[in-house]
Design a protein that fits this description.
Shape: globular
Largest sheet: 7 strands, mixed
Radius of gyration: 21 Å
Structural class: alpha/beta
Strand content: 15-25%
Distance between the termini: 47 Å
CATH architecture of the largest domain: 3-Layer(aba) Sandwich
CATH superfamily of the largest domain: Type I PLP-dependent aspartate aminotransferase-like (Major domain)
Helix content: 40-55%
Strand order of the largest sheet: 3-9-8-7-6-4-5
Number of domains: 2
Oligomer: single chain
Order of helices and strands: HEEHHEHEHEHEHEHEEHHHHEHEEEH
CATH topology of the largest domain: Aspartate Aminotransferase, domain 2
Number of helices: 14
Length: about 400
């Protein structure tokens, strides 16, 4: 019996290979920076979420080491047992001030935050969760894990969203959207969504993973970008993208924080974030708050890159975020583009289904504030060669 199961799994893997959907990991042999070492050679990294270049910042590393010398490496328990420290609480207070909310609760990952929060709030078949069709996989899995009814509306389609709100009843209604969509790089029309949430008495949750540190004049994300302070009930953000670390948080009012502490299973039953991560992220936040020019530099880099790609004939848009999708279409074409770019010294992973819809395989290019003008010119020369080749 066991042998048969393993053979079936092996056949599934072969099918993935035949469909050009097989995945394998690339080994990075250096710090996460503008350039990284892969297979013994240095290549320009254009597919990292290290948007502000803080992952290997000397000040971040120094603070992580300092904290480790005082508190140790880890605190192996959930925060409700013995894993809560003064540093965890200080980071929550600092993030709450940054997001201008009453409180913040830390989570171990954005995935855990999304599945936990959605399934805790909407925990009955009488509840309703409404999600944008292109929301992150963790939100979709949160819908599946909840006991609630759920519906999806066409991407950024406000009329479709209102039709669902009008037509479906729920004891509790929760609308969940990405602030910045991770694969397309576009920004959700949050002001209109917030108005609909108010009109139809629904809570509004925004996944700000790719917005925090990227949009808004001070990098405070979707609420700052749209000036919606006090209008978004739950802001989920990650510490592992623009802030260069690991983990996540929910910026909420005090009632929701206490509810999450008592009801969100991934928070209750998960070991707390390691001390060096907490200290490092705190310093990354200090750097962001003290250097708003990082956001402007990121913006300029995206503008210059998109402008250069358009001159080469690529159909791309600058959507005001750090993400520039280059749609290849079929899986094999995306893989070929990625391979040719790597040969030219540029590393961009090919994104294929089920991460994106079938027929929209792509190169998801991400710029950072640490990329130089020379880096961008190097990348554009590589894209020019690949465009001629295919």
């Amino acid at each position: 019996m066991k042998k048969r199961i393993i053979e079936e799994l092996a056949r599934e893997l072969l099918e993935l290979e035949e469909k050009k959907l097989y995945r394998k990991m690339v080994t990075i042999e250096s710090p996460q920076d503008r350039w990284v070492k892969i297979e013994g050679r240095w290549v320009l990294l254009l597919c990292s979420n290290n948007y502000l270049g803080l992952a290997s910042h000397p000040r971040v590393i120094e603070k992580a080491i300092e904290a480790m010398k005082i508190y140790g490496f880890g605190n192996p328990a959930s925060r409700l047992v013995s894993g809560n420290t003064k540093l965890h609480e200080e980071l929550e207070e600092k993030l709450a001030r940054f997001k201008e909310t009453e409180s913040v609760l830390l989570f171990s990952t954005g995935y855990m935050a999304n599945i936990g929060i959605i399934s805790a709030i909407c925990n009955s078949p009488e509840d309703l969760v409404i999600s944008d069709k292109l929301n992150h996989a963790s939100i979709i899995d949160g819908l599946m894990l909840s006991k609630a009814q759920f519906a999806t509306f066409r991407h950024n389609d406000l009329e479709h969203l209102e039709k669902i709100l009008k037509g479906k009843k729920g004891r509790r209604k929760l609308i969940v959207v990405d602030g910045v969509f991770s694969m397309d790089g576009d920004i959700a029309p949050l002001r209109d969504i917030a108005n609909l949430a108010e009109e139809y008495e629904a809570l509004l949750m925004v996944d700000d993973a790719h917005a925090t540190g990227v949009i808004g004049e001070r990098g405070r994300g979707s609420v700052e970008y749209w000036n919606l302070y006090g209008k978004i009930d739950i802001q989920m953000g990650t510490l592992g993208k623009a802030l260069g670390g690991f983990g996540a948080f929910a910026a909420v009012d005090r009632t929701l924080k206490e509810y999450f502490i008592n009801k969100v299973r991934p928070f209750i039953f998960t070991t707390s974030l390691p001390i060096p991560v907490v200290a490092g992220v705190m310093e990354a936040l200090n750097i962001l708050e003290g250097n708003p020019e990082l956001i402007k530099k990121l913006r300029r880099n995206v503008e210059n890159f998109v402008k250069g790609l358009k001159k080469l004939g690529f159909d791309v848009k600058d959507q005001g975020t750090a993400i520039v999708p280059i749609i290849a279409g079929e899986e094999e074409r995306a893989l070929k583009m990625s391979k040719l770019l790597f040969e030219e010294g540029v590393f961009i992973t090919a994104i294929r289904p089920p991460t994106v819809p079938k027929g929209t395989s792509r190169l998801r290019v991400t710029l950072t504030a640490s990329h130089t003008d020379e880096d961008i010119e190097f990348a554009l020369r590589a894209f020019e060669k690949v465009a001629r080749a295919i």
